[in-house]
Write a structure and sequence with these properties.
Order of helices and strands: HHEHHEHHEE
Protein name: CAP domain-containing protein
Distance between the termini: 40 Å
InterPro entries: CAP_dom, CAP_sf
Pfam families: CAP
Helix content: 40-55%
Shape: globular
Structural class: alpha+beta
Organism: Pseudogemmobacter lacusdianii
Mean pLDDT: 86
Keywords: Signal
Low-confidence stretches: 1-22
């Protein structure tokens, strides 16, 4: 019997691990925090003459899967700990990727102002918020102990 290669095993592991991704711990006001982050992104874009981003269930799923994976496995990085890359996570969500970006943030303060401040003050993250190529976005949060993890994924297909 021939065993599947590492890439197939990694893809299977990721697909299997994301099935429970939406079940990770989230604050009671998670929906409000997500909405406020999305409104902020669009307000910043609008103030600069850029198009507003549409909410994408697929990108939100990719963002939530990553937030939950980081929370469950105790890491904070764009690359999954032994898991797929950012682009593979987005593709696994079913989003047809042309362009995609990701911002992450972590804080013991559980509110939408945290990622806003952090991303505005980081040139690379700010560029992702204002990327003129983007058309869609997904935002997610997850609890990791006393920290709240924020994930923003922007994309265009």
């Amino acid at each position: 019997m021939r065993l599947p290669g590492p890439a197939i095993l990694a893809s299977f592991f990721y697909a299997f691990s994301t099935l429970g991704a939406l079940a990770c711990a989230r604050p009671n006001d998670a929906a409000q925090i997500v909405t406020e982050v999305m409104q902020w992104v669009n307000a910043e874009r609008s103030a600069r003459g850029l198009s507003s981003l549409r909410s994408s269930a697929q990108l939100a799923s990719a963002a939530q899967a990553h937030a939950c994976d980081m929370a469950r496995r105790g890491y904070f990085d764009h690359e999954g700990k032994g898991g797929p890359s950012f682009s593979r996570r987005v593709k696994a969500s079913g989003y047809r990727v042309g362009t995609a970006v990701e911002n992450i943030a972590s804080s013991t303060q559980h509110n939408a102002q945290v990622p806003q401040r952090l991303w505005r003050n980081s040139p690379g993250h700010w560029e992702n918020v204002l990327d003129p190529r983007l058309r869609d976005m997904g935002v997610a949060v997850a609890l990791s102990g006393n920290k709240l993890l924020f994930v923003y994924v922007g994309g265009a297909n």
